[in-house]
Amino acid sequence: MLTTHPFDDDKLREECGVFGVYNHGEAAAVAALGLHALQHRGQEAAGIVTFDGEHYHIQHAMGQVGDNFSSQSVIAKLRGHAGIGHVRYATSGDTVLRNVQPLFADFEFGGFALAHNGNLTNALMLRRQLVRRGCLFQSTTDTEVIVHLMATARSGSVIDRMVEALRQVEGAYSLIALAKDMVIGVRDPLGVRPLVLGKVGDSHVLCSETCALDIIGADFVRDVEPGEMIVLDSSGVHSLRPFLPQHRRFCIFEYIYFARPDSVMEGHSVYEARKRIGMELARESAVDADVIIPVPDSGVPAAIGYAAESGIPFELGIIRNHYVGRTFIEPTDQIRNLGVKLKHNANRLMIEDKRVVLVDDSIVRGTTSIKIIEMVRRAGAKEVHMRISSPPTSHACFYGVDTPKKEKLLAHKYSIDEMAKYIGADSLAFISIDGLYKAVKEPGRNNARPQYCDACFTGDYPIPLLDRDTPAGDGSEITYRAEARG
Ligand code: AMP
């Protein structure tokens, strides 16, 4: 029996951002800036690995990028012209330094660093097999199976080993690796998580979102295609297609919440998409009201769209204290509740005696909505109507966005009417799935061939959930609780 349960509970679901730069005189500083722009994708830990032509330099830290990678002394130690970095958020107290990425390993070909955004859905299965073959895991991350699959691969080159490893994994991944004077970027065949290519001077950059290009003055070149591997080396940029083409299923939740609004994803401005979602929501679920108030910050663009379409004035009726981390990110329910109070305050004059429409991007456990509605009522609102710029979140994500287990999701437990009662709203409405697709410039959800991954709203999981669906006890001496990932 293994003493640790690496896939236990909510622990391993991660939200992450990745960054890589090749051929830059200040690779570490550039990586730190890029990670700073990606901080919204993960706030618990960060890491940078650089290569100076001979040696690798590694720095991992718990906490935010600005607190750990802004000093000259730290950056100066990370010498080299190539570097990759990672920001990470994992849901529990088990966030330990050994899980911080980029992971680093010594292969027979030399050093290898790997940063991953996404989640592998057969990591547990593979890990079990690898442990039986004698692999000694150093972390509890799903990402580490890729390193061991590469180490045990038949062929020699970095690229071949990586391809061989990735052909065995299932799941969502945008990866950036550093090896043998190359920076390598790969996106899973469905392209669930984002990855873009940029250019600054003679250097190329790979990163999760375009906002990380903007911060370093890099130009956007293009999205890395689903199933594409990009290699940056001294001879330029190379594109490989090691996987069979598949129907793309980009994560629609990136548009709703996860990405930064100033990023452009798959050809769409995230900000514009959010505004259009708000407009569509206003068309679908109009309400007679005096004021549209966003739940800051994530509800702001959708609320602007809702106000524009409905003609009802938009006001900042709730003010957010920016010096508190994202509510959702606090690990316990108790702290989460406290977090909401610390984070938001009612702007009374905008609320008193008014019929208020609150716009937020999603309801997960309902914690935020309950607190905000109570606060708005205490500030004297006559009516409080909640409008949500996503369909009800009824299923857990297994592809890299943190969600609690299905049983904790309000929309899994309750009907919309019951949810309205639970959060204390006079009315509650969510955008429809077709409305959401329209807002991201599709005619609607083509049920036979959906264009996005929307599993959190529909339960239609485009990548098999092998770990979740495989019974744990297989008679072997190593057991994991596979169920724990759900
Ligand atoms: P809850 O309070 O549990 O209902 O969570 C909903 C709030 O958390 C909304 O205000 C969202 O902006 C935010 N949120 C939704 N999904 C996530 C996520 N995956 N990570 C962090 N925050 C989230």
UniProtKB/TrEMBL annotation:
<protein>
    <recommendedName>
        <fullName>Amidophosphoribosyltransferase</fullName>
        <ecNumber>2.4.2.14</ecNumber>
    </recommendedName>
</protein>
<dbReference type="InterPro" id="IPR017932">
    <property type="entry name" value="GATase_2_dom"/>
</dbReference>
<feature type="binding site">
    <location>
        <position position="361"/>
    </location>
    <ligand>
        <name>Mg(2+)</name>
    </ligand>
</feature>
<feature type="binding site">
    <location>
        <position position="453"/>
    </location>
    <ligand>
        <name>[4Fe-4S] cluster</name>
    </ligand>
</feature>
<keyword id="KW-0315">Glutamine amidotransferase</keyword>
<comment type="pathway">
    <text>Purine metabolism; IMP biosynthesis via de novo pathway; N(1)-(5-phospho-D-ribosyl)glycinamide from 5-phospho-alpha-D-ribose 1-diphosphate: step 1/2.</text>
</comment>
<keyword id="KW-0808">Transferase</keyword>
<keyword id="KW-0658">Purine biosynthesis</keyword>
<keyword id="KW-0328">Glycosyltransferase</keyword>
<dbReference type="InterPro" id="IPR000836">
    <property type="entry name" value="PRTase_dom"/>
</dbReference>
<dbReference type="GO" id="GO:0009113">
    <property type="term" value="P:purine nucleobase biosynthetic process"/>
</dbReference>
<comment type="function">
    <text>Catalyzes the formation of phosphoribosylamine from phosphoribosylpyrophosphate (PRPP) and glutamine.</text>
</comment>
<keyword id="KW-0411">Iron-sulfur</keyword>
<dbReference type="InterPro" id="IPR005854">
    <property type="entry name" value="PurF"/>
</dbReference>
<feature type="binding site">
    <location>
        <position position="251"/>
    </location>
    <ligand>
        <name>[4Fe-4S] cluster</name>
    </ligand>
</feature>
<feature type="binding site">
    <location>
        <position position="360"/>
    </location>
    <ligand>
        <name>Mg(2+)</name>
    </ligand>
</feature>
<feature type="binding site">
    <location>
        <position position="298"/>
    </location>
    <ligand>
        <name>Mg(2+)</name>
    </ligand>
</feature>
<dbReference type="Pfam" id="PF00156">
    <property type="entry name" value="Pribosyltran"/>
</dbReference>
<feature type="binding site">
    <location>
        <position position="397"/>
    </location>
    <ligand>
        <name>[4Fe-4S] cluster</name>
    </ligand>
</feature>
<dbReference type="InterPro" id="IPR029055">
    <property type="entry name" value="Ntn_hydrolases_N"/>
</dbReference>
<feature type="active site" description="Nucleophile">
    <location>
        <position position="16"/>
    </location>
</feature>
<dbReference type="GO" id="GO:0051539">
    <property type="term" value="F:4 iron, 4 sulfur cluster binding"/>
</dbReference>
<keyword id="KW-0479">Metal-binding</keyword>
<feature type="domain" description="Glutamine amidotransferase type-2">
    <location>
        <begin position="16"/>
        <end position="235"/>
    </location>
</feature>
<dbReference type="InterPro" id="IPR035584">
    <property type="entry name" value="PurF_N"/>
</dbReference>
<dbReference type="GO" id="GO:0006189">
    <property type="term" value="P:'de novo' IMP biosynthetic process"/>
</dbReference>
<keyword id="KW-0408">Iron</keyword>
<dbReference type="InterPro" id="IPR029057">
    <property type="entry name" value="PRTase-like"/>
</dbReference>
<comment type="similarity">
    <text>In the C-terminal section; belongs to the purine/pyrimidine phosphoribosyltransferase family.</text>
</comment>
<dbReference type="Pfam" id="PF13522">
    <property type="entry name" value="GATase_6"/>
</dbReference>
<keyword id="KW-0460">Magnesium</keyword>
<dbReference type="GO" id="GO:0000287">
    <property type="term" value="F:magnesium ion binding"/>
</dbReference>
<feature type="binding site">
    <location>
        <position position="456"/>
    </location>
    <ligand>
        <name>[4Fe-4S] cluster</name>
    </ligand>
</feature>
<dbReference type="GO" id="GO:0004044">
    <property type="term" value="F:amidophosphoribosyltransferase activity"/>
</dbReference>
<keyword id="KW-0004">4Fe-4S</keyword>
